[in-house]
Specification:
- The structure is a single chain.
- The protein is built from nine helices and 51 strands.
- Strands 6-5-7-9-13-16-19-22-25-28-31-34 form a twelve-stranded mixed β-sheet, with helices on one face. It has a ten-stranded parallel β-sheet with strand order 8-10-14-17-20-23-26-29-32-35, with no helix packed on it. Strands 12-15-18-21-24-27-30-33-36 form a nine-stranded parallel β-sheet.
- Helix 1 packs parallel to helix 2.
- The longest helix has 21 residues.
- It is globular and about 90 Å long.
Length: 793
């Protein structure tokens, strides 16, 4: 769909147009149009939303034309020190701003235009490219932009926040991956909406050591939010340009397709639209304030790679975006995403932490912590090219939408050595769809999935999707175990060529000492890896009988013979352990898991349960503080006495107005009490359930209940409750307070969001019903007829 939208957009463009509005309603495919929208606004036009008389002009975009000078002669490399946090028009004064520094290195601002005090902040650079450094005053290290910055168009430029006095390269707020705490922050001015922080259009540019957040705009938020966050249908909006904290793209779109010779029919570029190469984005906090808070205005995306080759994104904390933390669009070849912490993204739209589409050949996602995002951890959507996922920790994702931790479309991907757990869906789902939707009819194959460790899943560890199952939920959550098939036609309609899962010769293998001999059969020519299981498959559709479970510990890999048979001895097992296996064929890829077997004699009860979890259970926590080095002579540890049982009172519900999903002032006061309890007792996790009264259709009420649960969750997020401690769902009208009642007071009681408290320490929680925020609709005139089921509620 995204390819077809791109081609449609290209046919609509006219040479010389600066702005082309496209009015559409939000839909699941809306975000595909963002790539199209990039062509519609030249880089020389800044887009922001300006306040008038202290109020924001919602929905009105101000075009701020920056003069477009002739392309200058490349400027000599400069070392420029920014010593002012102010922004505005370029002018000669006593201090140098970031905007002036960018124009200096771009060559659009000349040294002779500066004052003597400003010239003192500029020196010739000693390296290949220019360098922008910082020396901002203490207490004034946040730069609030008034309008969009000029494109970063100077090759080999480095914008280096680590040069700010007070920056400590050894100080990290996280133990899992060491990422220094930034001092310099770049955001938008109050009541000003700006689409992008930095727009990178030249080779070799590095952005380092900054906190960047707040770059979004109301029309984009409408598209990102879809119908989930609105009371009613959102109005059509005008699409403009890819938004985000950092956007990487070529210079000066749009091209004129009538006069171009694109390199392929999937790349709507002229020859002059050269992708920036070897861009580096490192040691930044994107979407996160320098004091680790969710900003008042969240950004649309973290890093938006629209057209690039060889971009490296490493050691960044990327949090709290409306859409994905990192997204590629038309071209993102050789992209490297490594050692990042990616948490809490997809709050209001595209829910997946990393979404790769377009040409992404030889891209790598390695060594990242991907936690508590609203959808999948990694989502490859019709990519052209191969992606490698290796040594990532992908945990507690699917907080808003239930889907696979890793979702693969296309061929030749590798998922190796990852830790994938606590997912509201399968571990890895492989679509049957081909590499892309233009010019290819062959199924997706050669996706290798090996040496990963899975645990606590609501689905199979590996799920190969069949083309017979075409609902959206099948692509997102998987379609379950496939039957064994020997027909050659099966290669055409299931992910990884429908390679069969291995079959054990028996459901029980005798224990001999600490080992056992495992025998079975798989597709001839494949290699079989034996796994120890950690637990059974979870979720309402799970098979709790011994069958499928999480592939937790790879034990051994063995080749099949010409008939597909295999036999191997395994060690490090004990009576009652459960084992499974996967097969990998270099021609087709990796299979789904085998039906499990138990170690022991027939009838041996497995030592796993559907609820097997480590004891005591640790609350979800994406990151932790670094542990300081121990003192040379540690003091005697104090005697630890167990804490007394906790006993707390807390409200369990809030109410909503008729057909609304926003949090009222009265409900906000109730949520403040709940947030105070959650902050005081970090061991508590919650589930938020949205409800409606019985009027309107089931489908409408389910969606309305979901919006109410989402609004409640987002309010608590802004009160500092970590996203990994909250999940949401909707029950619509299925649990009424007074079934059968038509009283408007009972209807008001039905319109609610309930908080289910789950405290793993068995704390005595006194949960109180409250009706302080009850919102009763106006009674109808009794002389008028009453309809039993109005169309809207």
């Amino acid at each position: 769909m995204s390819r077809l939208i791109n081609l449609w957009c290209l046919r609509r463009k006219k040479e010389g147009e600066k702005f082309l509005p496209i009015s559409i309603l939000a839909s699941p495919f809306t975000l595909s149009l963002l790539a199209c929208g990039f062509y519609l606004l030249p880089a020389s036009v800044a887009v922001s939303q300006i306040s008038v008389s202290g109020k924001t002009n919602t929905g009105k975009l101000a075009q701020q034309p920056n003069p477009v000078p002739a392309i200058p002669t490349p400027a000599p490399a400069l070392r420029v020190v920014v010593n002012s946090n102010q922004d505005g028009n370029v002018q000669a004064d006593n201090q140098l701003t970031l905007r002036e520094a960018v124009e200096l290195v771009n060559g659009t601002l000349k040294l002779e235009q500066l004052s003597a005090a400003e010239k003192a902040q500029v020196q010739p650079a000693t390296g290949r490219g220019s360098q922008i450094e910082f020396n901002l005053p203490t207490g004034g290290t946040t730069i609030q932009l008034q309008k969009i910055l000029p494109d970063l168009a100077s090759a080999n430029l480095t914008i280096d926040g680590t040069t700010q006095p007070g920056y400590d390269r050894t100080k990290s707020a996280t133990a899992e991956i060491a990422i220094p705490v930034p001092v310099v922050a770049i955001t938008t001015a109050e009541n000003t909406e700006i689409f992008r922080g930095f727009t990178i259009v030249a080779d070799g540019i590095t952005v380092r050591g900054l906190s960047i957040y707040g770059f979004n705009a109301s029309p984009v938020k409408q598209q990102l939010g879809n119908l989930l966050i609105y009371d009613g249908v959102p109005k059509p909006v005008t699409l403009t340009t890819p938004p985000g904290d950092i956007v990487v793209a070529h210079k000066f779109p749009p091209p004129d397709i009538r006069k171009q010779k694109p390199p392929s029919n999937n790349l709507p570029f002229r020859d002059r639209d050269v992708p920036p190469k070897n861009v580096t984005i490192e040691d930044n906090w994107l979407g996160l304030t320098e004091n680790e808070k969710i900003p008042t205005e969240t950004s649309a995306f973290g890093v938006y790679i629209f057209n690039s080759q060889g971009t490296t994104i490493r050691r960044n904390r990327i949090y709290y975006h409306d859409g994905s933390a990192i997204i590629t669009s038309v071209r993102g070849e050789n992209t490297l995403v490594t050692q990042n912490i990616i948490v809490g993204n997809g709050l209001a739209g595209m829910p997946d932490a990393l979404r790769f589409e377009g040409i992404v050949t030889n891209s790598q996602i390695t060594g990242n912590l991907i936690c508590a995002n609203d959808g999948a951890g990694v989502y490859l959507f019709k990519p052209d090219g191969n992606v490698t996922l290796e040594n990532n920790k992908i945990t507690y994702n699917g907080r808003r939408l239930r889907r696979a931790a890793v979702y693969l479309m296309g061929s030749n991907h590798q998922v190796i050595g990852n830790q994938i757990d606590n997912q509201t869906g399968p571990g890895v789902s492989v679509s049957s769809f081909p590499r892309n939707d233009i010019g290819s009819n062959s199924p997706a194959v050669k996706n290798i999935i090996r040496n990963n460790r899975f645990a606590v899943l609501e689905g199979l560890s590996i799920d190969l999707i069949s083309q017979r199952n075409l609902d959206v939920i099948d692509f997102q959550k998987g379609d379950g175990a496939n039957p064994k098939r020997d027909s050659g036609n099966r290669r055409l309609d299931t992910g990884n060529g429908a390679i069969n899962a291995p079959e054990f010769t028996t459901r029980a293998f005798s224990l001999s000492g600490t080992g056992a001999t495992i025998r079975g059969k798989a597709d001839p020519g494949s290699e079989v890896t034996i796994y120890k299981l950690s637990d059974y498959q979870r979720g309402k559709d799970s098979v709790y009988d011994l069958g499928y479970g999480a592939l937790n510990l790879p034990l051994i890999t063995v080749s099949t013979d010409e008939n597909g048979k295999f036999s191997t001895n395994i060690g490090n097992v004990q009576l009652g352990d459960a084992v499974s296996a996967i097969a990998t064929d270099p021609k087709y890829g990796t299979s789904e898991p085998a039906v499990a077997a138990v170690i022991g004699e027939p009838g041996t009860f497995p030592n796993l349960t559907p609820n097997s979890r480590p004891q005591p259970v640790v609350p979800p926590q994406c990151t932790s503080r670094p542990v300081p080095p121990p003192p040379e002579k540690p003091p005697e540890p104090p005697e630890i006495t167990p804490p007394p049982p906790l006993k707390i009172r807390v409200p369990k519900n809030i109410h909503f107005a008729l057909d609304k999903s926003f949090v009222s002032p009265g409900s906000a006061q109730v949520l403040d009490r709940i947030a105070e309890v959650l902050q005081q007792y970090p061991v508590i996790v919650i589930e938020i359930v949205g409800h409606t009264d019985p009027r309107a259709s089931d489908a409408y009420n389910l969606a309305l209940g979901r919006r109410r649960a989402l609004a409640t969750r987002n309010y608590l997020l802004r009160k500092g409750v970590a996203p990994e401690r909250m999940t949401i769902r909707s029950l619509g009208e299925s649990q009424l307070k007074v079934p059968g009642s038509t009283d408007i007071t009972d209807y008001a009681r039905d319109r609610r969001a309930e908080i289910i408290f789950k405290d793993i320490r068995g704390v005595d929680i006194i949960i109180e019903e409250q009706e302080d925020d009850l919102q009763i609709e106006q009674r109808r005139n009794r002389s008028q007829p009453v309809r039993s089921r109005p169309r809207r509620r």
